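Researcher: Structure for this, please.
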Amino acid sequence: MLERACIQGAAAGLARRSIPKAHALPPVRLYDKFRVLPHRNIRSATSCHDCVKCWKRPYRGEKLTMKATDSRNLHGHVIRELGKRIVVGDLRPGDVLPREEDLAESMDVSRTALREALKVLSAKGLIESRPRVGTRVRATHFWNQLDADVLSWRCASMPTDDFIEKLVEMREIIEPAAAAAAARRRTAAQLGKVDLAYRKMEAARDSEEWAAADLGFHDAVLQATGNELMISLFSVVESALGMFFVLSAKTAGDFKYSLPRHQKVLEAIRRQQPDVARKAMQSMIEDSLANLRKKRKGTSRKTA
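Model: Predicted structure, token format:
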């Protein structure tokens, strides 16, 4: 009872002092409902709200820990846990969450922290609350797909082929035009940043360093456009692009195989040749997608 009082007090922001060592809390296991029990199909829209034990099952067999901290940190943790479950498909569109008091108890957070988390997820378009129905997961077309959290949650799990194709399509629309604009408008300072990013790619010692430098290169190209809308767009899709570059580097036999293509983009921007820059960027994107497709086909043959 004392331990429960400590964590509830911290979550509600009522306890201003740190919890004494004598009252230190052990790691708390988070739970979910992602197993069909013999008595109930909990995937249906008429999920059992009262059956808290449906949620008291290990999350995909993992032991997750949560510190007894202030309510703001707790509600951030709930946002991440529920958001990930929705985005990766463990909670499907139409699924109804348990009642507020049951969900708060199963996750060991206060109802105040839970309500704040649900408001954030609702603003992202992931859930909605209706009278006499409860809180339900919304269809994917209602989600804010460009939300930084939603993108990062999608990328945290192995992205689907469909997601990769859509990301590449978005790149094909934006980046060739950005390269052309950079070639037209870049300043000497902006060109220097593109060149520096290329040098970092050239000096990369492993695929992780390469992916980070690759991300910096494309960021520098967008910065050189002088278009604040394009620049802002990069900050939105940065996590998705970072995932794509890591995946592309790891699936390639030589992670530096595309360095000559980046050099062509750099030189076209240096010489202020918009059409050449556009074609070079388009060719680079098509090549990276072809590399991923080839690798995935090889993997599927091995598992068949």
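Researcher: Any notable elements?
Model: The first helix runs from residue 2 to 11. Residues 112 and 281 are 49 Å apart (CA to CA).
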